[in-house]
Design brief:
Translation Initiation Factor Eif1; alpha+beta; single chain; five-stranded antiparallel beta sheet; 14% strand
């Protein structure tokens, strides 16, 4: 009888813990499902895989540390991450949208530093290989042919082969330098545009506002399937995104004004002004979020609506030489 009571108590405790674990995942908007891989190659066998999906934004670092790989909007694991993930969620706070963006920039800066080290090492190897080839070649007189049958023939052929190998290494390492420098340039551009490109920030803000509106319209659907917790998490994340990009854009505009620059807006542009968007176009209408320009595609009657953040410069009609 005692054994039976202990057994029942154990089952109840296990069920309660399982329920609590499920509540932790649910409260964070996460779900874990088990599936199998579908290899494209016939000789590969399917493998079990666990997929963490849902509102995982803000937990990227945690999921990565647990061994997950981001794939098609979810995170994949080749071993069941449930216990480790639930334990980690008990002491880990979700990153805000601003913290996520800062973490992305930090990772790119770290990547830049690594690539700069790779480029420096590759350049060093390239120079050493070139110097080795030059040193070997310095012992061969300019224009000296291979003397067939002479005691120097084998050494001469060996030296030519060594020169060729070292020059190939030098060229290969030089190509690596070009590759790393191209990656570095791209990453530096991506880091810088977050603070320096009004067009980029305007695009991100428009996307965030559109995403927020989409979530707000879907509230009834979330209520229908009793998923208000998930809705609230996604609403919070989308709201944070709008606030982040809006603040970033306002900060950049304030910086431009402090530096004596001009910021295109409904207050600073009037009909008849000229705006620059690659070429100069006359403004025919000033709207709340856009300006309507004419002469689009060099056709006077063709008009086009352009967001203020995409305007590169503007001037009044009398400012003929202004840029």
């Amino acid at each position: 009888m005692t054994i039976e009571n202990n057994s029942n108590q154990f089952v109840a405790t296990e069920t309660q813990e399982s329920s609590q674990d499920g509540d932790i995942l649910k409260s964070n908007g996460l779900t874990i499902s088990e599936t199998v891989t579908t290899p494209q190659k016939s000789w590969k066998k399917p493998r079990p895989v666990w997929v963490v999906s849902g509102n995982w934004q803000g937990f990227e670092g945690l999921l990565y540390d647990l061994g997950g790989k981001k794939y098609r909007g979810s995170w994949s694991f080749f071993s069941n991450p449930t216990d480790e993930l639930i334990e980690a969620l008990k002491s880990t706070q979700r990153l805000s949208f601003a913290e996520i963006q800062e973490a992305k920039i930090d990772r790119k800066i770290e990547r830049i530093e690594k690539l700069e080290g790779y480029a420096a090492n590759a350049e060093k190897r390239s120079n050493l290989a070139y110097e080795a080839a030059s040193r070997i070649g310095s012992f061969i007189p300019m224009g000296q042919p291979i003397l067939v049958g002479h005691h120097s023939e084998k050494r001469h052929r060996r030296d030519i082969s060594r020169i060729d190998n070292q020059m190939r290494k030098s060229v290969e390492e030089s190509k690596k330098v070009d590759y790393f420098e191209s990656k570095i340039s791209t990453l530096k551009y991506e880091v810088g545009r977050n603070q320096k490109s009004r067009s980029y920030l305007g695009n991100r803000l428009a996307e965030a506002q559109s995403h927020l509106a989409k979530i707000q319209r879907a509230k009834d659907r979330y209520e229908e399937f009793h998923r208000l917790e998930t809705y609230n998490l996604r609403l919070q994340s989308a709201t944070e995104a709008v606030e982040y990009w809006s603040k970033s854009l306002k900060d950049l505009e304030a910086e431009l004004l402090n530096q004596g620059g001009k910021v295109a807006s409904p207050e600073t542009i009037k009909p008849g002004y000229l705006i620059k968007y690659g070429n100069w176009y006359p403004v025919v209408r000033v709207n709340k979020k856009t300006v309507t320009i004419s002469h689009w595609l060099d056709v006077p009657k063709f008009t086009f609506k352009l967001p203020y953040t995409k305007i590169q410069s503007f001037k009044a009609p009398e400012e003929k030489g202004a840029e």
